[in-house]
Design a protein that fits this description.
The chain is α/β, with parallel strands linked by helices and 337 residues long. It is built from 14 helices and 9 strands. It has helices at residues 15-26, 45-52, 70-80, 99-109, 138-144, 160-165, 178-186, 209-212, 214-232, 238-248, 258-277, 283-305, 310-315, 324-336, and strands spanning 4-10, 33-39, 59-63, 85-88, 94-95, 113-124, 131-132, 157-159, 191-204.
Length: 337
């Protein structure tokens, strides 16, 4: 039985990208793994032909009878995997040669951790050469999950026994947020972590799901938020839920008046107080996240509405950081007004 199962769904992948992805796994310094490739575009015979050119017994090629989508394909890959650890790989990205070796060592040295991601570097047509390092600590990762995914899915390695014992699977109704729901579920039974070392290269291009299906992804975010609030026992009014969905977690929102900003502060304070009374996630870290998001939205309100948030920041009980830019802008608005 292999120590690691590397799982990789492929779907109409460009030849060059697929070859680079496969090559990066076959050249890993760690050798005890199986490489399960699942073709979710079975009519594309070219992909099968490309995979067949690699004469490596660790490669196990499968096809879906019909296109299932990414979440269902990942669930089928979980059923096919035999390794103690499962490593995820995107069909158009590149893994660092020591990725598997270092993630295996991490999980063996941290038995309390159920899933670990890594830092990564962007490359490709857009957002080139930017390095992303997510929070390393379990408390901050779980505190952030309501607001954003703080683990990059194709960098992850996790324990197969954990997901099998607790029947954890990717949510098949989602096209994008199935990974965040997956982390949330694992986080109920084990710690989550990120390694600070860059062990993955993530290709950005114009045909990414995140670029093509924004309305669907927003709907999934709203659904995930509702699930989180229900699990936490937090009851929001329809207006409060809309404020959270449209303004708190949506980065490209436009806040044009103090009334909207005040509602954002009220919603953040409400969910923070509820988590303090009945903690679903670490209290200190969640409070800090709520405070950071309030500051972000205050900066947004300055840009799009010329809104002075000084009074609001003085009265809020959220732990807001002393943001020099925000303070300077509010002071300028004060003297101008």
């Amino acid at each position: 039985m292999p120590k690691v199962s590397v799982i990789m769904p492929i779907y109409n992948t460009k030849d060059e990208y697929l070859r680079q992805a496969i090559k990066s796994i076959l050249e890993q310094s760690y050798k005890d793994y199986e490489f399960i490739i699942l073709n979710d575009s079975p009519v594309n015979v070219c992909l099968k032909e490309i995979v067949s050119t690699y004469q490596d017994s660790r490669i196990k090629y499968f096809e879906n009878e019909q296109t299932l989508g990414v979440a269902k394909s990942y669930n089928r890959l979980l059923d096919l995997a035999k390794g103690e650890f499962i490593a995820v790989m995107n069909h158009d990205d590149i893994s660092h040669p020591q990725r598997l070796e270092k993630q295996v060592a991490y999980l063996e040295n941290h038995p309390e951790v159920g899933l670990v991601g890594t830092a990564y570097k962007k490359f490709g047509e857009i957002n080139r050469f930017k390095t992303i390092e997510n929070p390393k600590d379990d408390a901050e990762i779980r505190a952030l999950l309501l607001f954003k995914s703080s683990i990059h899915h194709p960098t992850t390695m996790y324990r197969r026994q954990l997901v099998e014992e607790h029947h954890i699977r990717y949510k098949e109704e989602y096209v994008s947020l199935n990974d965040r729901k997956f982390y949330y579920d694992i986080g109920q039974y084990a710690k989550l972590a990120n390694m600070s070392e860059v062990l993955y290269r993530y290709r950005f291009h114009k045909n990414m799901v995140s670029k093509q299906k924004k309305p669907e992804i927003f709907a999934e975010q709203c659904d995930f938020h509702a699930h989180w609030f229900e699990h936490a026992g937090i009851e929001l009014t329809a207006e409060e839920k809309e404020i959270f969905d449209k303004y708190v977690t949506k980065g490209k929102c436009h806040i044009s008046n103090i009334e909207t900003l005040e509602k954002i502060e009220q919603v953040l304070s409400k969910i923070n107080e509820a988590n303090q009374q009945h903690p679903l996630v670490p209290v200190k870290e969640f409070s800090e996240v709520c405070g950071r998001y309030l500051v972000k939205r205050c900066l947004n309100a300055i840009v799009f509405g010329g809104v002075n948030s000084s009074k609001l920041l003085k009265k809020t009980e959220l732990p807001v950081e002393n943001n020099l830019l925000l303070k300077t802008c509010n002071l300028a608005l004060h003297w101008r007004g």
